[in-house]
């Protein structure tokens, strides 16, 4: 494209300057707040580095306009893999028309077989360690409509884990397809906002600590005058307070503990290299065991946070679990909420709307209820005597151990792993409560 054409569109759109790819199909414009460096120019993509004082670090952006044929898109997927090899820890975001879908649910009114196409696109996304940013603001997920009425989500935003470190609040909005057969994508990003203090949650990594069971036993053996469910509730509440203190003062910070273990093993290796005495060999083995324990603890931490139950034991990939956690935080964040005829977007407005809704819900006078037809609740004539029979210890134990250890915690913050790991200490009170 000539400089005249660039200048013309910059003036029309209100930007300082811009550039296009070699095919003239992809355009990028920016204002005086940015400095943009061209890194890669191809028929299906335009890859640039962006530097701005508005961001905490430089990032790279890959604009995409994929071809229609699968063979040509394979060239694009391989280009993405080449870019990934050069990215390192640089924040990376990519967007545009990928001319492909990731899921069968991302299309409608089509019967063609797209499984190979989806597999190749998904393989590229996985190989490049990218995540789909999702979308909001539209009645459907489709971003493209053909003249025949075929609907597909061909346009999307992808980013890597480093992008979420830079801008963890990233929202993609599908705008209206008024002027085009494609929906424009509006990307809004912000740094992390303050989060309220987290409620208590039993951490699976705690059971690896040598003093964990001692803490549970001390709290559980402390006298309690209550009985049944009240007794179990009281002991769990006491243990919660003790574990919170113990986690802060004894268990310590997971990542600092790992750093200390890594430093200790380096020092032990250095000493052993200088003097290969039995004592130094034992110290090295001890340091190695401590580091292995810290790595297992860190893996437990990220795996529980990611709520990933399908990864098999032994597949240590903390980077993968970490990326899942950051993606969940971004997806679970409420960016906007409907309040009457208004759409609220600011965090304070959303909070006030929630307080207002539940205040009215819980304080307004309840309407009078209609008379209940008791015949609807009549039970057939059967022997229900077994329903009132007290459950045996074995039945209760089978029920507790039948729950997956990675299941989500209950309202009190304790997961099934706690009951399974400490069963010999707490079984009497649990059975009495049941």
Task: Report on the architecture of this protein.
- Among the domains are: 3-190, Deoxyribonuclease I, Chain A, CATH 3.60.10; 204-215 and 248-332, no CATH class.
- The protein has helices spanning 3-13, 70-87, 115-127, 161-166, 212-221, 228-251, 254-274, 278-306, 318-332, 347-363, 393-401, 416-421, 423-433, and strands at 17-20, 27-30, 34-41, 45-52, 59-65, 92-97, 107-108, 131-132, 144-145, 151-152, 155-159, 169-174, 185-190, 337-339, 342-344.
- The chain starts with a helix and ends with a helix.
- The protein is 44% helix and 16% strand.
- The protein is globular and about 85 Å long.
- A hairpin with a 5-residue loop joins strand 9 and strand 10 (151-152).
- The longest helix is centred in the C-terminal third of the chain and has 29 residues, at 278-306.
- The relative contact order is 0.07.
- Strands 3-4-5-6-11-8 form a six-stranded mixed β-sheet.
- The protein is of the alpha+beta class.
- The mean pLDDT is 85.
Q: How would the global form be characterised?
A: globular
The sequence of SSEs as H and E is HEEEEEHEEHEEEEHEEHHHHHEEHHHH
CATH topology of the domain at 3-190: Deoxyribonuclease I, Chain A
Strand order in the sheet with the most strands: 3-4-5-6-11-8
Number of strands: 15
- Span between N and C termini? 76 Å
Strand content: 15-25%
- The helix tally amounts to 13
Q: Which structural class do the helices and strands define?
A: alpha+beta
Provide the low-confidence segments as ranges: none
Main sheet makeup: 6 strands, mixed
Highest-level CATH class of the domain at 3-190 = Alpha Beta
CATH homology group of the domain at 3-190 = Endonuclease/exonuclease/phosphatase
| Average pLDDT level | 85
**What's the architecture of the domain at 3-190, going by CATH?**
4-Layer Sandwich
Helix content: 40-55%
Rounded to an integer, what's the Rg over CA atoms? 29 Å
């Amino acid at each position: 494209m000539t400089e005249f054409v660039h200048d013309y569109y910059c003036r029309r759109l209100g930007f300082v300057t811009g550039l296009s790819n070699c095919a003239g199909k992809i355009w990028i414009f920016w204002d005086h707040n940015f400095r943009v460096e061209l890194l890669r120019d191809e028929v299906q993509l335009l890859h640039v580095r962006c530097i701005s004082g508005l961001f905490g670090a430089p990032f790279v952006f890959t604009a995409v306009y994929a071809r229609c044929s699968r063979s040509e898109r394979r060239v694009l997927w391989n280009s993405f893999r080449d870019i990934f090899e050069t990215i390192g820890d640089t924040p990376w975001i990519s967007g545009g028309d990928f001319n492909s879908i990731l899921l069968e649910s991302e299309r409608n009114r089509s019967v063609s077989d797209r499984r190979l196409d989806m597999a190749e696109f998904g393989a590229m996304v996985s190989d490049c360690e990218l995540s789909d940013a999702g979308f909001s603001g539209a009645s459907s997920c489709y971003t493209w409509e053909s003249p025949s009425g075929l609907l597909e989500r061909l346009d999307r935003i992808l980013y890597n884990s480093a992008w979420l470190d830079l801008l963890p609040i990233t929202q993609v909005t599908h705008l209206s397809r008024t002027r085009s057969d494609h929906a424009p994508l509006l990307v809004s990003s912000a740094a992390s906002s303050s989060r309220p203090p987290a409620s208590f949650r039993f951490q699976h990594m705690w059971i690896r600590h040598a003093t964990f069971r001692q803490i549970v036993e001390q709290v559980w053996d402390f006298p309690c005058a209550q009985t049944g469910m009240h007794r179990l509730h009281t002991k769990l509440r006491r243990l919660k307070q003790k574990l919170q203190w113990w986690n802060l003062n004894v268990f310590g910070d997971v990542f600092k503990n790992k750093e200390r273990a890594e430093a200790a093993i380096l020092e032990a290796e250095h000493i052993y290299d200088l003097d290969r005495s039995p004592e130094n060999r034992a110290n090295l083995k001890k340091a190695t065991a401590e580091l292995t324990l810290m790595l297992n603890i860190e893996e437990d931490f990220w795996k529980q946070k990611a709520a990933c139950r399908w990864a098999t034991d032994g597949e240590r990939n903390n980077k993968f679990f970490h990326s899942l956690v950051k993606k969940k935080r971004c997806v679970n964040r409420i960016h906007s909420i409907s309040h009457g005829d208004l759409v609220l977007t600011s965090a304070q407005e959303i909070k006030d709307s929630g307080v207002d809704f539940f205040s009215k819900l819980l304080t307004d006078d309840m309407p009078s209820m209609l008379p209940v037809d008791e015949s609807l609740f009549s039970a057939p004539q059967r022997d229900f005597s077994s329903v009132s029979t007290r459950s045996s210890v074995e039945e209760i134990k089978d029920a507790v151990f039948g729950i997956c250890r990675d299941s989500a915690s209950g309202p009190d913050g304790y997961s099934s792993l706690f009951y399974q790991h400490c069963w010999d200490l707490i079984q009497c009170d649990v059975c009495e409560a049941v």
